[in-house]
Amino acid sequence: MAATGWLRLGFHAVSLAVVAYSVVWLRQLGMLAPWLVLMFTMWGLATLGAFLCVALVVDASKLWAFTLQLHELLFALACFFAVIVTTIFWGLFFYDRELIFPRAFAFPALLNHIQHTLPMVVLALEFLALHRRPRAFFRHHPPVSLLLELSVLVGGVIAYLHLTAALYAKSGRWPYPFMSGFTFSTFLGFATIAVVAALLVSHLLRSARLHLHYAPPRKPE
């Protein structure tokens, strides 16, 4: 394995270990509860963890067609979740911390950054450096189809919104403090905006990936 391959393998292994440690840390704090399934952050961590697992398989073995397609799909999804989680969480956090955490809730700062900053850092490095391969590689391994990528992405967002609506219908509560004033009609508007935003962010990320990783090199003038 070339030096770049070992670097990629080590990066993915360490990143996965940190993600796993954050889950262990949550358990030690007694915060691993069923309601966490409604935390968008956990969906992002789960997607990142799945991507890193598949990335390790790709790093350490032959590049099977199915594995590569799954690798590319999870990379796209992990990028989407990282962008949404990082921008929305920190935007609300700096605007008014209580929109995310109740005043009396003490959350470790390091764990906070592992969950809400690290995914963006890991995937930015992956996107800009480690994910890059020779142009010939991508000519033989085309990107995941747009229809499949959007279907999985929008399906995931709709599933999340459905679970959130089910929680409200059952208990009258929303998962986040900033949603406390929502009525069901407000939530439907929020859900519509969320799906449109998902499509827009996915389109921008896909365009950037195709341009950076798949576009032919410019010919010298």
UniProtKB/TrEMBL annotation:
Among InterPro entries, the record links this protein to: ADTRP_AIG1
The UniProt keyword set, sorted, is: Membrane, Transmembrane, Transmembrane helix
Transmembrane segments annotated in the record for this chain? 7-26, 32-58, 70-93, 105-125, 146-169, 181-201
Q: GO cellular component terms?
A: endomembrane system; membrane
Q: Where in the cell is it found?
A: Endomembrane system
How does the record say this protein sits in the membrane? Multi-pass membrane protein
Q: What PANTHER family does the annotation carry?
A: ANDROGEN-INDUCED PROTEIN 1-RELATED, AT02829P-RELATED
This chain belongs to the protein called: FAR-17a/AIG1-like protein
Q: Name the species this protein comes from.
A: Acanthamoeba castellanii (strain ATCC 30010 / Neff)
